[in-house]
Structure to design on (420 residues):
C-alpha cells in the first residue's frame, strides 16, 4: 500500500482488512453495498488546515476557497465552511448546495463562462459576495439582470500553459474562459467594468489548469496579470490547480510550497494590501476519497490478459475515459498480501473502453472481494452519470471510526422519478 495515495492513518486492522479513519472498508462494503465513495473526513480537514496555516505564516489577508466542483456534496460544503474556507461555485446548482449548507453568501464566489439569467438572479437574490466576470456579454447581462450592486473580479486568461492534460489546461489564449491578455480584451474588460453602474471591480482572477506538479507557471501567470494593475485591485484570485498522487511514484509539491510560491509572486508583482485568494478543489478532497467495488467476474484470456470486472466503472469514475487517468488498486480484504496477479480492472458498462485500470497487480483477487481504488475523491462523484441505467453510488463520510451516509445511493426508482 503506497502511503501517498491514501488518507493519513489508513491501516490494516486486526482482521487484516484495510481501514480508513477507523472504518473497515470490507465491512462498509457489506453494510452499504458497492460501488461506494468513502471519504476520510479528518484528511479533508487536515488539508483545509494545511492551506490556511501555509497562508497564515505570511499574512492574515487571504481566503482559501473550496472549489466545489471537485466534490459538490452538501456535507462537504458544510465541512469546509466549518474549517473557515470560502467557496467557489460554478453554477446555480452548486450555489444552491452552498446556500443549503449554510454558507455565508458573502463568502461565496460565483464562476461560470455562461451564467444564465436565472443563475445571476439566484446569485443576486442570495447576496452572493463576488461574481467572477467571464465575458463582455456577461457584463451586459449582469447590468440587465442584477437588481443590486455587486463586487466583481475579472477572469483573465494569462496565456500561460502548465504541463497537464490539454483538457484541463485553462489559461491559454485559445480558451473559452475569461478575457485574453495578449489581444487586449482583459484591459478593455477592466475599463468597461470600471465604467459600469452595477458592477464594482475589486480584483482579477485566473485559473490556468488542474493536476499541476510544476508550480513555476503560477508565478508567470501572476507576473503576466501585473500589467493590468490598478488602485481598484484589492484582491487576486489565483485559482486552484495543485496536483495529487494518483500513482505511487507521483510526487506533487507540498501545499506549503504551492502557497509560498503564490504568496511570493503576488508580493513580487503587486502592491502590499492585495488580498490573495486561491481555489483548491482536487487537492482538498482527492486523496481523502476512495471507491469501493465488489469483484464480480474474472475472465482469463490465455496469453492475452485477465479482465476483472467490478460493479461500477465509467458511471462512477469517468476520468480514465476522459483523461486517460491512471489509478492503482488494492484488495481491501488483504492489503498486505503480495500483489502477484496482474489484471485489467473493467467496469460493467456496454463499452470496451470502460476500463478503470489497465494492468494492475493485485493480491490473488477472488469473486466477492472488495476492490478499493484510492485517490478518487475529486471529480469522481461530480462526473458520475447514469449510463446504462446505473444508479449513482452513495457518499459515505468516515470520521473517528464512525461512518455516515451523506448522499444515499440512487435507486432504480430514482431513475424513473423524472418521467413526465
Ligand atoms: N477554480 C476554477 C475556476 C476551476 O475551473 C477549477 C477547476 C478549480 C478552481 C479547481 O481546480 P483544482 O484545484 O481541482 O485543480 N474534471 C477534471 C478537472 C477539471 C477542473 C476544472 N476546473 C479532472 O477530473 O481532472
Amino acid at each position: 500500500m503506497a502511503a501517498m495515495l491514501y488518507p493519513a492513518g489508513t491501516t490494516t486492522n486486526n482482521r487484516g482488512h484495510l481501514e480508513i479513519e477507523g472504518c473497515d472498508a470490507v465491512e462498509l462494503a457489506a453494510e452499504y453495498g458497492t460501488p461506494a465513495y468513502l471519504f476520510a473526513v479528518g484528511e479533508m480537514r487536515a488539508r483545509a488546515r494545511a492551506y490556511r496555516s501555509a497562508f497564515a505564516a505570511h499574512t492574515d489577508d487571504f481566503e482559501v476557497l473550496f472549489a466545489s466542483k471537485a466534490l459538490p456534496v452538501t456535507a462537504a460544503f458544510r465541512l469546509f465552511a466549518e474549517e473557515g474556507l470560502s467557496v467557489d461555485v460554478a453554477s446555480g446548482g452548486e450555489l444552491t448546495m452552498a446556500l443549503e449548507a449554510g454558507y455565508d453568501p458573502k463568502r461565496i464566489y460565483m464562476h461560470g463562462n455562461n451564467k444564465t439569467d436565472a443563475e445571476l438572479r439566484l446569485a443576486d437574490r442570495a447576496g452572493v459576495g463576488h461574481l467572477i466576470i467571464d465575458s463582455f456579454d456577461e457584463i451586459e447581462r449582469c447590468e440587465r439582470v442584477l437588481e443590486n450592486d455587486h463586487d466583481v473580479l475579472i477572469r483573465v486568461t494569462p496565456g500561460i500553459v502548465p504541463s497537464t492534460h490539454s483538457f484541463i489546461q485553462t489559461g491559454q489564449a485559445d480558451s473559452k474562459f475569461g478575457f485574453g491578455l495578449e489581444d487586449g480584451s482583459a484591459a478593455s474588460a477592466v475599463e468597461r467594468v470600471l465604467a459600469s453602474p452595477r458592477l464594482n471591480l475589486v480584483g482579477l482572477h485566473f485559473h490556468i489548469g488542474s493536476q499541476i506538479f510544476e508550480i513555476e507557471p503560477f508565478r508567470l501567470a501572476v507576473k503576466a496579470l501585473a500589467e493590468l494593475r490598478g488602485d481598484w485591485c484589492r484582491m487576486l484570485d489565483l485559482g486552484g490547480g495543485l496536483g495529487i498522487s494518483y500513482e505511487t511514484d507521483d510526487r506533487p509539491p507540498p501545499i506549503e510550497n504551492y502557497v509560498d510560491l503564490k504568496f511570493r509572486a503576488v508580493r513580487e508583482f503587486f502592491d502590499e494590501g492585495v488580498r490573495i485568494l486561491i481555489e483548491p478543489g482536487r487537492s482538498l478532497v482527492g486523496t481523502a476519497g476512495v471507491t469501493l467495488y465488489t469483484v464480480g467476474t474474472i475472465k482469463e484470456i490465455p496469453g492475452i490478459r485477465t479482465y476483472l470486472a467490478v460493479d461500477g466503472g465509467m458511471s462512477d469514475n469517468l476520468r480514465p475515459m476522459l483523461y486517460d487517468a491512471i489509478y492503482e488498486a488494492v484488495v481491501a480484504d488483504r492489503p498486505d498480501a503480495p500483489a502477484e496477479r496482474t489484471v485489467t480492472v473493467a467496469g460493467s458498462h456496454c463499452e470496451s473502453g470502460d476500463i478503470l485500470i489497465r494492468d494492475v497487480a493485485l493480491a490473488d483477487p477472488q469473486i466477492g472481494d472488495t476492490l478499493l481504488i484510492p485517490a478518487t475523491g475529486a471529480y469522481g462523484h461530480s462526473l458520475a452519470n447514469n449510463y446504462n441505467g446505473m444508479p449513482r453510488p452513495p457518499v459515505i463520510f468516515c470520521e473517528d471510526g464512525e461512518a455516515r451516509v451523506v448522499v444515499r445511493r440512487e435507486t432504480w426508482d430514482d431513475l424513473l422519478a423524472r418521467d413526465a
